[in-house]
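Entry 14. Ran structure prediction on the chain below.
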Amino acid sequence: MKIFDQILGHENIIERLLYAYQNQKLGSVYLFIGPSGVGKKKVALGLAQALVCEQNQRGCGICPSCLRVAQRQSESLILIEPEGPQIKVEQAHEVLKFLSLKPMGKSAVVVIDQAHLMNQQSANMLLKALEEPAQDVYFILLTSSYSALLPTIRSRGQVVRFGPLSEDQIRKNSPQSPLWAIRAARGSFERLTELSHIEDQELRQKAAQILLDLVEDEDFLMNEN
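Output, structure tokens:
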């Protein structure tokens, strides 16, 4: 499974990252900045797949290394996600332990989702690794808020900015979603999922019906029923 083939939008970003990799210009630390639910994590995992692929520099999607990344079971990848409201010290320890092991593949990739939730202690533990990453070690930090990242983290990565998806892109991928939810999602699949919950749809339909009744019946508010 080739992850890049499953990503909606962001073609320019993907091609720019692959071009840098193919021309030995890829940075060691990247900050993926953009709204939640637009595909930052998928792009990060797609890049990880390309970095460890045994067949080519774009990720073939079928070699054992690519398949393990797609299944998030790769010995060359660690994905850190918040546990509760923050990324804990123990998770920073996991990253350092991962980096201390002898790499099994071409590269070692660290993806930290919602990196702005690292507390001061966790961030400080990773600073040296971010400042002086070993050869063929790559960090990809994801966040919806650049300003919420600690200054020490901001100064160490190359910024890649992700914009929201278009309504057409979301509609193409989720044709069953109501139009109001697609518009209200503002380019985020994460928000679309929340808005498309059946209870939310029912509430909106009831509200719309009430508004229609108000328009069509001036005595609506006076009715007892």
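The longest helix spans residues 198-216. Will compare against last week's run tomorrow.
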